[in-house]
Amino acid sequence: MDQTKLSVWEKNYTFLFISRLIKISADCFAFNSILWFLIFDGKGAIGTSLLLAVTFLPEAFLAPVTGPLVKRSALKFWMYFSDLTRAAVVITIPICYLNGFSPMWFVLGLMIIHSATGATYNPASITLIPQIVNENLIQKANAILQSSSEIIRLGAVTLCGVLLTFIGPATTLVFSFIFYIISGLFVLCIKYTIIRNQSQSKSLAQRGTYFARLKRGFTLVKNHKILYPLAIYCIFMNLAASPWEALSAVYVAEDLNGTPFIHSLLKATTAGGAFLLGFILAKVKINRYGLLFITAGILEGAAYFIAGLNTFLPLVFLAAFAFGAAISSINVPEFTIIQTSVEGDDQPQVFAVIHMITNLSLPLGAIACGYAAKTLGAGSVIAIGGFIEIIAGIGILIFTQLAKARQSDLVKEKEASANM
Description:
Layout: H1 11-40, H2 44-66, H3 75-98, H4 104-116, H5 118-132, H6 138-167, H7 169-188, H8 198-205, H9 210-223, H10 227-255, H11 260-283, H12 289-309, H13 313-341, H14 347-376, H15 378-399, H16 407-418
Keywords: Cell membrane, Membrane, Transmembrane, Transmembrane helix, Transport
InterPro entries: MFS, MFS_trans_sf
Main location: membrane
């Protein structure tokens, strides 16, 4: 078939697209509703800090453990199971609250379950894309989802804020419940067929037990000439991002003498940058994903460095736009590299391993930069994070094969990893 006649907007991708956007809205409603639920219930800083921890850590720790269970034949099941479980969690909280039972340990315990289900949903959804989209359109499919997700996330946070003001957190959680149910229904509408050649079937049979598949995920990442440096740089990226994520509100208030409205505008500017670059990547075909990945990381580091050292507000907004642009320029090639250079049945486990390695560095970095900011100031810590990302990017660029890898190299790595 002529490539010009191919379209990413086939029925199955459309169902996945709608499901993902609705699920993102549900996640935003759930997190912000529970955040303000804890604040209004008098739990304060301790409650919100613990909420951040239980939102990220369970998913990061469990992803490699559940990865071997996420097989290509059951991707829909794991995605639907995740939506259904999260729906049950978010509806339980308002029901118990209305009956006079809402201790913090109970709410946070439910949020641990909420986070843990992401350990299966995210690897499954990433692996599903190559099953329902032509291989020449994988980059475009990822870019569309990335750019659209940022805009939907911004809109969902805004709408959730309005609802929280007028109807309160408990009632707002009902909307999250409805969104999760609708997302799950769209997942069930997706149809796909797995086609394996003889060598793939043989290699799949050789993977053996659960523990063999668990070990295989780590081994693949370690021995992969492209994914290993990618995973290493992801660690430095998240360490560099943690000061901005943790301290941006403090930086705006104390160093820039800004208001919460200014902070919201910075978030909106970041979302705009992510949308624009995602839109461009949906139109332009990239051959060297690794080079784009590293370049985006270095530019993101430069943006952090500039924002941290300068209190000139227009320059900070320009840096915020660069953050957003880097988000799409990092996530799209990362997903595409995994989908292109790893055999389908290994993709959930490989994604889970990289997700765990990189996501653990974000909360750890946030804790460290919180203490450092007391001595050095928020702006200086943000700038140091950016400097680290720049130096790490230059090192990855010079000393690894990530930047040199082309589409043909990804295919070769896929064949090599399948027989590993």
